[in-house]
Amino acid sequence: MAKIDTKTEGLDLYVYVAKTFADSPWLHYGLWEPGERPNIPQLRMAQERYVDKLLALIPPAPGRLLDIGGGTGEMAKLLLDKGYTVEMITPSHLQAEVAAEKLGPNARVHETKFEDFSGEGPFDVCMFSESFQYVDLETSLAKLKHILAPNGRVIIADCFRSDAYQGDRQPGGGHRYSEFAVAVERAGFVIVENEDVTLAAAQTMAIDQNVYRGFVAPTVDQVRGLLSNKRPILYWFLKTAYGLFVPKSERENIVARLKADYRSPEAFATVNTYRFLALEKRA
Fold this sequence. Notes:
The chain has 2 domains: 6-203 and 268-281, Rossmann fold (3-Layer(aba) Sandwich), CATH 3.40.50; 208-259, no CATH class. Helices cover 48% and strands 19% of the residues. The chain has helices spanning 6-21, 43-56, 74-81, 93-103, 137-147, 177-186, 198-202, 204-230, 232-245, 248-259, 265-271; strands spanning 64-68, 85-90, 108-111, 123-129, 148-161, 189-196, 272-281. The protein has a 7-stranded mixed β-sheet with strand order 3-2-1-4-5-7-6, with helices on both faces. Helix 8 packs across helix 9 (232-245). The chain starts with 5 loop residues before the first helix and ends with a strand.
């Protein structure tokens, strides 16, 4: 039986909620203003604030841009329409197919991990929108330095672990920010833009928490109850198979995910720092 990745499953659910209930094509966090109550109908508005902030870090078109970890190509399409020459990277075959169809012949889609990317620079902009946390830090910074144009920029909008994170189960993720800052300097880059939006991004966790508490967990309980009452033999078989084939650690992750006690805005802000960053090669 394939391993259940609770982080991936959570992202898939978030995407489904955004598309179905918020009519949003975006996969990233939203940015919420002080006093706003995060809710699904307003999610797209909060996500588009994120898009505006990201675009503000990118030099005006024309320019050659590499969208690293571009998902299904929504951001790449927006940049293509604004006049940039765009290439996109995703390690997912399905995402690469969807992106290639969406972008057409005017943008090249590379189906690869960034660490294995063999495309030719120079790129005026190399961009990570919630994808930097998935790449190897040292390898990626070295590759960025190699493919970036002399006056180019690396744009990163992503979550980082703060020094308060001690390795326990908490929402968020990414590289530890203090280690990232040291690695950036060692690799020959300087951070020229650095905006901390942790509190604005953290509010998105309230939507995630409410979906699990208000919809997913009750649905699971209802299905479990129906099976145990109406189909006890099938229920016993499924329960036994679940215990045999799903590792204990994954079962614990699933239980914690359904309770969602730890997936609050406050918990997120305690152990993470969400940054919008621009890096340039050191002169």
